Amino acid sequence: MIPNLNNLPIYDTVGVNERVDRFRKRSIKKSSKVEGLKLALSMIDLTTLEGKDTPGKVQQLCYKAMHPHDSLKNIPTVAAICVYPTYVGIAKKALEGSDIQVASVATAFPSGQSNLEVKLSDTKFAVDQGADEIDMVISRGEFLAGNYQFIYDEIAQIKEACGKAHLKVILETGELDTLDNVRKASEIAMYAGADFIKTSTGKIQPAATMQVTYVMLDAIKDFYLKTGKIIGMKPAGGISTSKIALQYLVMLNEILGHQWMSKKYFRFGASSLANDILMQLVKIETGFYQSSNYYSKD
Amino acid sequence: MTKIIDKDSFKATWNYEEAPESTDHIHIKQQYELYIDGQFTKPTKGKYFDTINPANNKKIARVAEATEDDIDKAVEAARKAFNSWSKLSGKERGKYIFRIARLIQERAREFAVIESLDGGKPIRESRDIDIPLAANHFFYYAGWADKLEYAFPNRKAKPLGVAGQIIPWNFPLLMAAWKLAPALATGNTVVLKPAETTPLTALKLAEIIHESGIPKGVVNIVTGAGETGAAIVNHPDIDKIAFTGSTGVGKYIRKATAGTKKKLTLELGGKGANIIFEDAAIDQAVEGIVNAIFFNQGHVCCAGSRLFVQESVEKVVVQKLKDRMESLILGDPLDKNTDIGAINSKKQLKTIENYIKIGINEGGEIYQPNCTLPKSGNWCAPTLFLNVSQSHRIVQEEIFGPVLAIQTFRTIDEVIEKANNTPFGLSAGVWTDKGSKIFHLTQKLNAGVIWANTFNKFDATSPFGGYKESGFGREGGLHGLKPYVKFE
């Protein structure tokens, strides 16, 4: 049932900015840095969501996911590949034998401007193609108009259509205007059956910010306290450097703690982040920054 | 439906490795002299005392102890310098003050490290708050130096003469800036005494002031403890005393200066009320509580050491506060990840520990997070006291440490009465989403500074000072000029 949205915590932007600054000021060095970088790498949903995507590009990306940088020993693979439904089958085949998940965006991504029937069939198509995870978008127009029940029902039905696939609900926080709205949308998504809540499609600016992620982590914490159920978090878009990724992990570490510090419950939706992490890891091992040409751009 | 969740549910297990700020770049002498009449001078009696790093109780340097003869010399130098300094144009005075501000900025990193070494505060605070604010203060008052006729329209403001300034150990460089900048901008000359536990940044400041080329004798910096301070307070040729420190010493100074020509400003203790209403943004309020009481280990005169939480949100606020305290990192002040540093001195640690004992004996319910205190040095875990009331000593008296007394309230009138029911009146905080409530409370609370939806924010342009036993006179802003001038 749709939760009571009248008694939700409210957020003060100035205060949230200050809190986020404290996370940013943590200084992550030496072995804790290596640990953080490897963890971040393992949490990446390596993403390509372009109209000009080709089967070849998706296959390359899958290879990159399994072999991020073979000259580096003891590094993890990424968590998943994130593609449009039409490429799920190709990705699934390319990743055969690995434990890398295939995530597919669905529900008229990125705008969500279609009817439920289309969204459901979009979702079912992706699931039939073998998607392990579905990244759906909410109907921001309905949300902003105050039709919360609509949002709840839509998510619940998509969840049903997902079957065994995990459901990530994209709130598209860049269009929600206020932190209080982000909290409200998080609440609806979690109660409607989301396994993950996700900030952005990456197609709208601003995409993920530490501030909205903070609010969503806070919502996840309260949901856990109320229900005992762990919901995952995925900031996506704009997280392109190791430094920013580590700041997100610091925040995750200090708000939600150990249970969430794995790819099971935290993902980065990113494309260029992986290479930056690899570059840092190589720098730590060798003492030198290599040119970006040493890292495959897939 | 509320499930019982294991208290380790949200435990942070990714531990950050040590990230200490380097000390390679700082220059500390083994021995420091008095800065009198533009020269570093040996003390007449040849006495020195050690300044200690409170994080390990090791000696950092030897510092001269000024006695009456030295104060005489300093006042004499200041008096001599006053003749020409007070006649210098505001524009010229301003140039020197600007120069001091810029030199502080240039050497900010060195100042920050020394401040943390000598005083025990986390480098995050000295780097991001103390030192930049100190530079800002000089910049701000440098701007006023040639605009005094606009500060006091239709009145001719004249400097007072020689100012004796005594500052505390909690914000050593910042307090020196608060005292020196307005005094110099208005054309006074100064004899300044830093606290005996934290003299190093003031002595570094003396080096910068020397470098700035300011005429000799305009600024004199003398070190020592209470007796040195008394010699300044009782010196017959001083025109103005500005003191920041404890209410006890403030009372002594007021008595000592009664019946003299000396002008006086006092910035003394406090027991700030931090008031959380049920309609506040609770998470940010919790962060505000942390900033209010654990900032600088609670060694803050305007600390929000009395927390008032509206009944309906007490449970959630206290739980969130406890959770937040778990993630505070206590340890080496020079580590960039440290949230809570060392207690400034053994003496202060004893005072705080004694109050914690009193709190327990009075029946308060104590809470401290799991944190291991380092073996050597002076440390105190952040501490809460629940189930206390207005009649508890830990609610009434200033502890000057990381100890918070928590009470609840039901109505606005009740919380106003309780908040004002204290001999102090320095600071207060109000947390609510409702603007009208903020205005209502700011009119009713007897405190010199009231923060709304934030706490412990300082700015050179904003006046700071107290009511009642928290002192009188304002520092900062336009108001901060007034205690250093007389009108023709």
What CATH calls the topology of the largest domain in chain B is: Aldehyde Dehydrogenase, Chain A, domain 1
Main sheet of chain A: which strands, in order across? 7-6-5-4-3-2-1-8
The Cα radius of gyration of chain A reads 18 Å
Anisotropy-based shape of chain A? globular
Q: Extract low-pLDDT stretches of chain A.
A: none
The fold-level CATH name of chain A is: TIM Barrel
Helix content of chain B: 25-40%
Give me the CATH superfamily of the largest domain in chain B.
Answer: Aldehyde Dehydrogenase, Chain A, domain 1
Secondary-structure-based class of chain A equals alpha/beta
Which strands sit side by side, in order, in the main sheet of chain B?
A: 14-15-16-13-12-17-18
Helix content of chain A: 40-55%
CATH evolutionary superfamily of chain A: Aldolase class I
- What count of domains describes the coordinates of chain A? 1
CATH architecture of chain A: Alpha-Beta Barrel
| Global Rg of chain B | 23 Å
Please report the distance between the alpha carbons of the first and last residues of chain B.
73 Å
Strand count of chain A: 8
Description of the structure:
The complex is a heterodimer of chains A (298) and B (488). Chain A has 298 residues and is of the alpha/beta class. Chain A has one domain (13-294): Aldolase class I (TIM Barrel), CATH 3.20.20.70. Chain A has helices spanning 13-24, 30-42, 55-66, 88-94, 116-128, 140-144, 148-162, 179-192, 210-227, 242-255, 273-286; strands at 44-47, 80-83, 101-105, 133-137, 166-170, 196-198, 232-234, 268-270. Chain A has an eight-stranded parallel β-sheet. In chain A, helix 3 links the parallel strand 1 (44-47) and strand 2 (80-83). The longest helix of chain A is centred in the last third of the chain and has 18 residues, at 210-227. The termini of chain A are far apart. The model of chain A has no long low-confidence stretch (mean pLDDT 96). Chain B has 488 residues and is α/β, with parallel strands linked by helices. Chain B has 15 helices and 20 strands. Chain B has helices at residues 68-85, 90-106, 108-119, 123-144, 148-151, 172-185, 200-211, 226-233, 247-257, 282-294, 314-326, 346-361, 393-396, 412-420, 435-444, and strands at residues 31-32, 34-36, 39-41, 48-53, 58-64, 157-159, 162-166, 189-193, 219-221, 240-244, 263-267, 273-276, 306-310, 365-367, 383-386, 403-409, 427-431, 449-452, 471-472, 485-487. A seven-stranded mixed β-sheet of chain B has the order 14-15-16-13-12-17-18, with helices on both faces. In chain B, helix 9 links the parallel strand 10 and strand 11. The longest helix of chain B has 22 residues, at 123-144. Chain B starts with 30 loop residues before the first strand and ends with a strand. Classes of the chains: A alpha/beta (298), B alpha/beta (488). Chains A and B meet through helix 1, helix 2, helix 9 and helix 10 of A and helix 10 of B.
